[in-house]
Amino acid sequence: MASRMSVAATGDSFITRRLAEPFQHGDLAAIIRAAEARFTNFEVLTPGDEGFPSAVSGGTWARAPAGVIGDLRDFGFNLMAWANNHTLDYSYGGLAATARALDASGLVHAGVGGNLAEASKPRYLECPSGRVALIAITSTFHESAAAGQQRPDSPGRPGVNPLRYTTRYTLPRERLATLAAIAEECGINDAHKARMKDGFADPEEPGIVLFGNHRFKESESAGYTTEPKSTDVTRVCTAIGEARRQADFVFVSLHAHEMAGTDKTVPADFIRSFAQSCIGAGAHAVIGHGPHVLRGIEIFQQRPIFYSLGNFIFENETVENLPADFYEKYELGLTENVADAVDKRSATNTKGFAVNPWAWKSVVARFGIEGEALTELELFPVDLGFGQPRPRRGFPSLSQDEAILRHLAELSSRYGTRIISHNNVGRIVL
């Protein structure tokens, strides 16, 4: 008989405060606990006293008390990814401390390790209905956060499982020639030419015009395309192949902010290419998150790709402290505090996430897999308190806002996916 598995999946848990106990017994927790495999993306660190702030961060230096891990476990989660743009916010000490806290919690977590092999490998959850594998990866990270490959004569480097990509810009012939002339006149490529002269850089392939760090080629129209790095795709697909032989079900978590154009709701081309490659390699679902808004759902080869499930918990405004780098960015000094800094960044709640309602509306997905195919997929709308004062927004509750499912249905229609709503629960038409 074919194996069956029920899954509850959420997007980002940017949790910086302990959960009040009643939330652990509410309707939303019951929906999540009704599944066997229960996933969220853990987008903070619990560095304690070990981690110092890195010179760069994912935006907010994302730290939280270690107790939030147990709170998420008590809420119902048993699977976590934590490969994202905040993983190195508190350097290697913060990474190591968080890894120990996750290990101690008993939660299965993936996407980060002491070297590239460890960060890339599947992690396994034992469920009554079968064994589940989780592989986690991120395309949004500072280059210094990527885990390094170990060698017989050299250790690897701690970090995230990286999905890198290339961007190729296109211009019509005449405009490409103009760009080449501008590059020559302004000297933007002089450093590259010097490296070529010294033998430290190779000439560009024929037909490519270099402009700083960007490469252009001729096309009938202006635009750009993105492609995932083949070695990263191969590494993940190899891990999927291993997991297919070691587990009954394989899920891939992808943290990706990158978008097509300026619309956050539309993933960049390389994201869709990568996700479909994962399904083709045998993954039963790809669970996306990262842009802090919903993206559409695609059913590919009878399996779901969630391009972004948005935010599940979003408490980036209530971190307890921030490093000097954050204050300096907003021209604040030593006498200002976290509230001052967050007010300055948001212009006192008049810009940024504070005024984007879709940063505070999302869904919990609950779906069933039998054998190789999706059997059902339900979507439960979630509200995180848009428009509420800072202390009262960021934590999820079930929503009666019918616009959430209509919005997600519209986003999913570009992939040929139909969502119908009954009693404010969405269902995918298979």
Which features does this protein show?
24 strands; ten-stranded mixed beta sheet; 11 helices; 430 residues; six-stranded mixed beta sheet; alpha/beta; Purple Acid Phosphatase, chain A, domain 2; 2 domains
Can you tell me about this structure?
The structure is a single chain. The protein folds into 2 domains: 4-151 and 229-316 and 356-428, Purple Acid Phosphatase, chain A, domain 2 (4-Layer Sandwich); 173-218, no CATH class. The strands form 5 sheets. Strands 1, 2, 3, 4, 19, 20, 21, 22, 23 and 24 form a 10-stranded mixed sheet that branches. Strands 6-7-13-16-18-17 form a 6-stranded mixed sheet. The chain has a 4-stranded mixed sheet with strand order 10-11-9-12. The chain has helices spanning 27-33, 67-75, 91-105, 116-120, 173-186, 190-197, 230-246, 269-281, 324-329, 338-346, 402-413; strands at 4-14, 37-42, 79-81, 108-110, 112-113, 123-127, 130-138, 159-160, 165-171, 208-211, 214-218, 223-228, 249-255, 259-260, 263-267, 285-289, 297-300, 303-306, 311-314, 361-370, 373-383, 397-398, 419-422, 425-428. Strand 3 (79-81), helix 3 and strand 4 form a beta-alpha-beta unit. The protein has 430 residues and is α/β, with parallel strands linked by helices.
